[in-house]
Amino acid sequence: MIIQTKYLGEVEISEEQILHFPKGVLGFENHYDFVILDIFENHHFKILQSLKHPEIAFFIINPWDFFKDYEVDIPDEELAKIDILPNKENNFALFNIVTLGQIFKESTANLLAPIIINLNNKKGKQFILNDQNYTTKHKLFPQGTGE
After folding, report:
1. pTM of the full predicted structure?
2. What is the pLDDT of residues 74-91, one digit of tens each?
3. Rounded distance, CA 108 to CA 18, Å?
4. How far is CA 69 from the centre of its chain?
5. Domain count of the chain?
6. Rounded to whole angstroms, how far apart are CA atoms 7 and 37?
7. What is the DSSP string of 4-37?
8. What is the CATH number of the domain that holds 69?
């Protein structure tokens, strides 16, 4: 299947790549189906692209590429909403949405609301953490780095 994307033009994807967010993502609760696209020039960043609305796309990162001490504590009942169950072998991925700055080194990550994808059933959910240590605009590059 070929989809139109915000940043990469037309891209061919397979059905297996489609992710379903039963409640959408924050601010876009009526948009349910997305795909994660690689940015070939940069392995640290990916794009979470809406299938039906090319203008809706988010840059995302694996938070541990930038924040080695990032800790996520999500209640089991929240994880169960996308069939990630305690005491069961789960295959999942976690990402954070990034806002690119006018100057790249000013880019920020939303560490307060990670996105978790159950890789077995392709369901995703964005969670709001109850953690005062994280913000929605956490600098990706501490002062003096990222140049």
Report:
1. 0.91
2. 889 989 999 998 777 778
3. 26
4. 18
5. 1
6. 10
7. EETTTEEEE--GGG-EE-TT-BTTBTT--EEEEE
8. 2.30.290.10
